[in-house]
Amino acid sequence: xxxxxxxxxxxxxxxxxxxxxxxxxxxxxxxxxxxxxxxxxxxxxxxxxxxxxxxxxxxxxxxxxxxxxxxxxxxxxxxxxxxxxxxxxxxxxxxxxxxxxxxxxxxxxxxxxxxxxxxxxxxxxxxxxxxxxxxxxxxxxxxxxxxxxxxxxxxxxxxxxxxxxxxxxxxxxxx
Length: 175
Hints:
Layout: E1 5-7, E2 18-20, E3 24-31, E4 36-37, E5 42-49, E6 54-55, E7 60-69, E8 74-75, E9 80-82, E10 84-86, E11 103-105, E12 108-110, E13 115-116, E14 121-122, E15 127-128, E16 133-134, E17 139-140, E18 145-146, E19 150-153, E20 158-162, H1 168-171
Parallel strand pairs: 2-4, 3-5, 4-6, 5-7, 6-8, 7-9, 7-12, 8-13, 9-14, 12-15, 13-16, 14-17, 15-18, 16-19
Antiparallel strand pairs: 1-2, 10-11, 19-20
């Protein structure tokens, strides 16, 4: 496995971060220590990763308006995070080449020790709290806040349950 990963220094990231040779990083990415970016990941725009963040196979972070992923968070395979999107309420929703189309630009923030489940979608302006879980195949609408230690699931982002408080310091390797 290690042969397929390069130290982050080849991407201007810390040496303790590992990036798969088939990851696609284009933009301004800053990263903490001990992160891993897997194969077929796409990261564009302005993205900040805290310590010990894992970005799973095929995940995509589109940071045109900025994305912050805090320490200890895992973005599962296939998850997509968008900081810009078409405004679906606009009559001009079409494609990126359309003139005068309406677009939403709003940064996304994901808290410490959170989880973005497999094939979850997080839309512009969403805030995912510390220790929160966005379950597989869940869509977090633009501007929605998921409270700390909450598990949400489904297309309507229903609150399934709350979680026990995570010992963030221990999870990040501290005392």
